[in-house]
Amino acid sequence: MKLRDLTFKGGVAVSDNKGLTNHLSIESAEEPSIVMIPLHQHTGAPCEPVVKAGDEVKVGQVIGQSQAFVSAPVHSSVSGTVKEIASMAIPTGPTVDCVVIESDGKNTMDKSIRPNGKLEDLSPEELIQIIKEAGITGMGGAGFPAHVKFSPPAEKKIDTILIDGAECEPYLTADHRLMVEEPEKIIYGLKVIMKAVGVDRGIIGIETNKPDAIKALKEASKDEENISIATLKVKYPQGDEKRLIDAILGRQVPSGGLPMDVGAVVSNISTTRAIAEAVMEGKPLYERVVTVTGRGIKNPKNLVVKIGTPFKDVIQQCGGFNEGAPGKIVMGGPMMGISQYSIDVPVIKGTGGILVMTEEEAKPEPMHPCIRCGKCIEVCPVHLQPLYLSSYSLKGDFDRAEALHALDCVECGACSFQCPSKRPLVESIRLAKREIIANRKKTN
Amino acid sequence: MDSKVASAPKAKEVALENMLLVSSSPHIRSNESVQRIMLDVIIALVPAIIGSVYFFGINALKLILISIASSMFFEAIIQKAFKKPVTIDDFSAIITGILIAFNLPASAPWWLPIMGSAFAIIVVKQFFGGLGSNFMNPALAARAMLLTSWPAHMSTFTGTRPDVVSAATPLAIMKFGMSADGTASATVESATSATQAAGAELPTLWNLFIGNNPGAIGETSILLLLIGAAYLIIRQVIDWKIPVAYIGSTFVMLMILGVESQFLPYHIMSGGLILGAFYMATDYATSPVTSKGRIIFGIGAGILTAIIRVNGGYPEGVSYSILLMNITVPLIEKFTAPKVFGEVK
Fold first, then answer.
1. Which end of chain B is more exposed for a tag (fewer CB within 10 A), N or C?
2. B41 lies within 8 A of chain A by CB
3. Surface of A (334-363) touching B: CB under 8 A
4. pLDDT tens, residue by residue, B83-107
5. Is B14 at the interface with chain A, CB within 8 A?
6. pLDDT digits over A95-149, tens only?
7. How far is B10 from chain A (nearest CA, A)?
């Protein structure tokens, strides 16, 4: 099996801008004085609060839970007092109930947090239970509960676990630093997933612009027969799970399908490391590495930030904004991240980065008519025709957009990035997808 | 929003929230632009412009400049009249102007490019919606219009030496000068060509390659056109598929139609095939956006060109082939949509 310089058809070359932070070791953020922990930061059912105003809570204590299978519990990231439970804006857009906790600064750990013992002694069922109770969700952005992903129906035969170390979004280096600094934990986390799913092959895919990460993981896995490292060409969106499976395994996930349909389960680096910590230390997901970066921030950093910490605290610790006003603040990377209208929103499980762009960088470029150059088709990793999808969407002709497979769009933004006329391609396709799904619900 | 959150330094917060730009991702864009692409095409045409002046004299330069100026003028005027933003700063009118001039003989009168530009820009380009929306290549449609309206002006070619007043193009020589029934043609322009062609001799292949032979001012120098084409392919402005499929299929079809092998190089290197294949068939607006579609488009144009040359009344056939293929583009695209990733049939 070929494991070097793998890639997929389509995609774009994007200047990665990772030099701002890829050499900076991960450091701990300051203890927040107050945290706002959303009860719904994952795909699936929202949690119900299990604490109330005035309660004392400890680090790692469950504060929100749901009986639904597709959901993930939420834990306190500080020790202190619950001030209130109130509806607040979160960085992914909606307003959701958040548990506001004032920290006592003592960081007292909850007594439920203790090592789970040796991996050899734990059964797959126990591992999945540990992952579920630790509240682990996909930390690459989608926020899908990890235990659900690791419990495929019996008829889906899984043969490979893939770990996405591509980190193809420009600017972000949280996963890169974790691979360099904690490779053993990543390997351990991969072994946990392999055992939980019952698979004896694990592959970590890393883009070749991270030679130090490739070296560290090769070193850490040299005694592991069932684990290999695949190197990937640097191309956006290599980290998209379907592109990763295609590049490494040469299998195409069917349209509308999931990785398990082709025998694969994909997990991201931060998630894998959180899984390792959940098993090794009993530590639930209450903090994560966040890359705070961009030319609009004074001192870019890779910080371990507690879930619920307001963006503005994190920005302050990085020296605040550079000269002049920030133009745009994005949660995540510049290709798929979500722009924020406020810095009062909290860091959530899916916050891999906070990108501060300068006014100059954020200035929208004037749009021109489509010249039909066809570059959007060349770069589309799904092999769609963005120019036509977009033009139908802008005309309100969503039926024709659907006929051209609008719903297959992964919204990676490669088309809009490449477009010489600066047209809102993915933006309008996103709109078409929303309309198509809304129409389906209406007719059903 | 919750009061606790809003109680932080208020005035500053409000100010920041008003300043932050919120938009759908992606938040970065490539350096590509319409102007840059058009500028690249102009840069690619510069060697051929210089060559045309070298081979055909100052009149070639005069025609090119009049053509560019009138194309830009008509674009600005018609956009003003339609109350639309004036977009001559996207440089696309300049390219149309150069290509119209490239299709004229060096002896053409000064007003011919003006007529061509007016038709190309006003009727073919702007009536159908402007840049990117025209369904035919404006420069080629203008050439077809001029050829129909002023056939004598359009097909009286001068040689590259000052002492030659009128000369036959290599294709005219092959078509009319060397075949027994060549003069049987009914059209005026082929009659003109045929008269010139009688008894003329074919240029050497070397002269053909560097451009030292009669023809429209921009079509003769294969060497200079290929230098520009290489630049466009390296800069990824044009896709190699259309020109390669076009030229390759012209060659194959000419062989199938029984053209003798010693004449094949003349067919490839004259009659505007290189100019048409690299600079006009690749026009974004009027060629398919799909990868397979581009190959089919090129093959179609090649077959038509060979058939027109061997069986038709015109000696060259490139412009009509491309124009005919232009109108098939929506159909080609319909049948060549790329297979969607993971598509289940």
1. C
2. no
3. 334-344, 355, 357, 361-362
4. 999 999 999 999 999 999 999 999 9
5. no
6. 999 999 999 999 999 999 999 989 999 999 999 999 999 999 999 877 899 999 9
7. 12
**Chain B residues touching residue A354 (CB < 8 angstroms):** none
Instruction: Look over chain A and give the mean of its residue pLDDT values, rounded to a whole number.
Output: 95
What is the Cα–Cα distance from B103 to B146, expressed in whole angstroms? 10
- Distance of alpha carbon B98 from the chain centroid: 9
CA-based nearest distance A26→chain B, Å: 26
Tokens 């069986």 locate to B311
CATH class, A27-112+284-361 region: alpha beta
pLDDT tens digit sequence for A154-207:
999 999 999 999 999 999 999 999 999 999 999 999 999 999 999 999 999 999
Q: Is the Cβ of B330 closer than 8 Å to some Cβ of chain A?
A: no
- B204 in contact with chain A, both atoms CB, cutoff 8 A: no
Which chain A residues are Cβ-neighbours of B131 within 8 angstroms? 368-369, 371
Interface of A with B in 242-271 (CB under 8 A): 242, 246, 252-255, 257
Coil, strand or helix: which one is A346? strand
Contact A361, A170 (CB under 8 A): no
Residue A237 Cα to chain centre, angstroms: 13
Chain-chain contact of B2 with A100 (C-beta, under 8 angstroms)? yes
Distance of alpha carbon B45 from alpha carbon B105, whole angstroms: 17
Q: Report which secondary-structure segment, H or E, holds B343.
A: none
CB atoms within 10 A of CB A120: 6
Flag if A420 and B20 touch (Cβ within 8 Å).
no
CB contact, 8 Å: B85 with chain A?
A: no
Higher pLDDT, B181 or A281: A281
On the question of pLDDT at B179 being above 50, the answer is no
* Pairing assessment for the beta strands A338-340 and A326-331 based on DSSP bridges: antiparallel
Contacts 24+ apart (CB under 8 A), B206-212: B208/B170, B208/B265, B208/B266, B208/B269, B208/B270, B209/B269, B211/B51, B211/B52, B211/B55, B211/B160, B212/B55, B212/B160
Give residue A273's pLDDT. Answer: 97
Q: CB of A27 within 8 Å of any CB in chain B?
A: no
Q: Mean pLDDT over residues A426-441, rounded?
A: 94
- Provide the residue ranges of all domains of chain A, joining segments of one domain with +: 27-112+284-361, 131-281, 375-443
From chain A residues 303-322, the ones with a CB under 8 A of any chain B CB are 310, 312
CB contact under 8 A, A310 and B5: yes
Max CA distance (Å), chain A: 64
pLDDT band at A442 (very low <50, low <70, confident <90, very high): confident
Chain B residues touching A90 at Cβ < 8 A:
none
A249-252, long-range: CB < 8 A, 24+ apart: A249/A160, A249/A162, A252/B341, A252/B342
How many CB atoms neighbour CB B159 within 10 A? 20
Element (H, E) at A391: helix A386-395
Confidence band for B271, pLDDT divided at 50, 70 and 90: confident
Cα B26 to Cα A146, A244, A413, B18, B192, distances in angstroms: 27, 21, 5, 21, 59
Q: Which chain A residues are within 8 Å of B90, Cβ to Cβ?
A: 368
CATH assignment of B34-335, among 3.40.50, 1.20.120, 1.10.3430, 3.40.1400: 1.10.3430
Rounded to whole angstroms, what are the CA distances from A266 to A240, A258, A433, B156?
10, 10, 24, 69
Task: Give every CB contact of residue A132 below 8 A, 6+ residues apart in sequence.
Answer: A72, A73, A145, A146, A147
Residues forming a β-bridge with A358 = A326
Shortest CA distance from A420: residue in chain B: B33
Fold category of A131-281 in CATH: Rossmann fold (3.40.50)
Q: What is the ipTM of this complex?
A: 0.92
DSSP code of B182?
A: G
